[in-house]
Amino acid sequence: MKAFFEGIQYLFVNILFAPLDFLRSLELSSWFAANTINWIFMIICASAMVYWIKQLKIFEDAGTEKQDTTAHSFLK
């Protein structure tokens, strides 16, 4: 049973966390390079929000947006 848990430890520490260890060592030399993945995610989220807001504006201008005052039938 001890070998099983040591195998799990080896998997996580030496294999799955290797990219995170690389980023941790990279941060000492270049903060911007280490946080590149964060900037990529922020750009993706910002572009998705812009797209979503544009789509909301298109549907509102077309008048197809359902503007019901109650969200559920049990609130009537």
From TrEMBL:
Segments traversing the membrane: 32-53
Keywords in alphabetical order: Glycosyltransferase, Membrane, Transferase, Transmembrane, Transmembrane helix
One Pfam family, short name: DUF6341
One Gene Ontology MF term: glycosyltransferase activity
Protein name listed in UniProt: Uracil phosphoribosyltransferase
Native organism: Flavobacterium algoritolerans
